[in-house]
Amino acid sequence: MKKEQVVHCQFSVWYPIFKKHTIKSLVLPLPQNVIDYLLDDGTLVVSGSDHNSQPIQTSDAEEDIQWSDDETTATATAPEFPEFTSAVLEAINALGGRVFPKLNWSAPRDANWIALNSSLQCCSLSDIFLLFKSSDFITHDLTQPFLQCSDQDSPDPVISYELVLRKWSELIPGGEFRCFVKENKLIAISQRDYTQYYQHILKQEEQISQAIQEFFSQHVQYNFLDEDFVFDVYRDSQGRVWLIDLNPFGEVTDSLLFSWDELMSGGETAYQQQEGPAFRYTTSEVTVQPSPCLSYRIPRDFVDLSTGEDAFKLVDFLKLKKSQQEESEEEENPTQ
Ligand SMILES: Nc1ncnc2c1ncn2[C@@H]1O[C@H](COP(=O)(O)OP(=O)(O)OP(=O)(O)O)[C@@H](O)[C@H]1O
Ligand SMILES: [Mg+2]
């Protein structure tokens, strides 16, 4: 995979080509001070000036807490990006009030657990910042987009970072498929949410494969800037196929139910012997696996405690702390 292929898969590059066949979206340039804020590990303070949503909840006791024991340390203040904030709010409103956020390539899929609604649905800039700042995928886009490219000796292309806002759409995971294109030929299709078994895929295998092949030959083939790429589609309940995303043909892109070796090899692989693309999906409950993003989470108890969502857990936690404290005091004063 070459750096140029990664450049071509940026949202703002492919979107104008395939606009008619994908979810309505708006792209806003990301100012440098916002990029700096996203990369700064220290601040997760979000400005209350974005009126679309409630400010992040703080505890009643907050005023009593001394965050700093050093008088000279500046208090953490929320950075303000007034112009950017109003541009984002305007875009969110134009897209119906609820959006799915991305950067040039990635969505913060690894961070949905941190949001109060456990979803990537955002209604304000603070919703977006919370997800972006918690996501390794977003950091990858910002810091090392060309990590796995084969032409490492060539200079990195200059990237203009962008915030992509897509109209929120309730996509049923069983309708999502990833399609691998090599030399402008559709060679393989994989169920996207391969950890689950969907009966309808088994039942409609032929129709699904046919619909995706038609969509490819009518709208995608020869229209993109590369001849090797991966595109994601959604087949809705009416059987209509939509484009969801374009990704580089290479290891940065998850090959799902295929392996990159088989996709790249010119050898005698299953898909070359048959007419159409190889179509793989999970065929039974037995193979169901946990979601791949689970490893990015922290234990549920931590989340509940930190957000104060589960009062009983908090009470138990405080009791535990108290009894530990008493135990250690007893150890220090064994005579008591
Ligand atoms: N507009 C939308 N509204 C709601 N959900 C969406 C929307 N767009 C995408 N999704 C959901 O989010 C998932 C990830 O979206 P997308 O493919 O754009 O992210 P990505 O970061 O490019 O993922 P990958 O790393 O796998 O390429 C999709 O599989 C889909 O389930
Ligand atoms: Mg993608």
Automatic annotation (TrEMBL):
Keyword terms of this UniProt record: ATP-binding, Chaperone, Cytoplasm, Magnesium, Metal-binding, Nucleotide-binding
Localization: Cytoplasm
Presence of keyword Metal-binding: yes
Keyword Magnesium: yes
Taxonomic superkingdom: Eukaryota
InterPro entries registered for this protein in UniProt: CDC123
Function field: ATP-dependent protein-folding chaperone for the eIF2 complex. Binds to the gamma subunit of the eIF2 complex which allows the subunit to assemble with the alpha and beta subunits.
Family: Belongs to the CDC123 family.
Name this polypeptide is given: Translation initiation factor eIF2 assembly protein
Source species taxonomy: Eukaryota, Metazoa, Chordata, Craniata, Vertebrata
